[in-house]
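Morning - PRP inputs below, output right after.
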Amino acid sequence: MTHQTESDRVVVFDHPLIAHKLATIRNKDTGHRIFRAALSQIAGLMIYEVTRSLPTQTIDVHTPMVITQCTVLKGTITIVPVLRAGLGMIDGILEVMPEARVGHLGLARDEKTLEPHAYLNKLPVDLDAGPVLLVDPMLATGGSASAALTMLRQAGASDIRMICLVAAPEGIARLQADHPEVTIYAAALDEKLNEIGYIIPGLGDAGDRMYGTV
Ligand code: PRP
Ligand code: URA
């Protein structure tokens, strides 16, 4: 899968199939059923590239013929969706990595202050047992993702990647300032935020569009 590296810590995908599905998601006339399906499919496509840098180890495997050395993933992977919209990305990821654990963080952005409010924190106790993939389709001001990353750090996570669908430059800058060690993977880097904190061109409110609560 080709991708374009903006910097070591930001990977923006440049792939025709992802772009095609993103066009469906951005379209205001796409209903929640198709929106959810496309979001999950894009997450499944992105995960192949996101996992390229995961730690591995060598083990002995008995084939029917001989003992050979094989490469396997090291540690237990945990996927952490930010509710609600992050939930739309985990099925596509779990299809490729069914053995991954799923932790949940609930964050809601205050529509006036744009500050995130945390309402759920359900994470495995041994979060440092392997890599953690934080997933949320929208990186707007970056307030929610930054708060989520802080919660993951406080829970003991040490190796974290962030996967989003659409990122605004403001959100990337915020994460690079607050959590410079985290690599951000985005299907698209959009132009800007508008005056009420929505991504332009964006796709509107991801959670509402996913669940038909617009
Ligand atoms: C959306 C989105 C992110 C957040 C991004 O969630 O899914 O979590 O906004 O905005 P930020 O980068 O400015 O923090 P929202 O708070 O609307 O909750 P929802 O998923 O339940 O709709
Ligand atoms: N949250 C969304 O769901 N969409 C945006 O454009 C910004 C924040």
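Note: The CA atoms of residues 11 and 82 lie 20 Å apart.

O.
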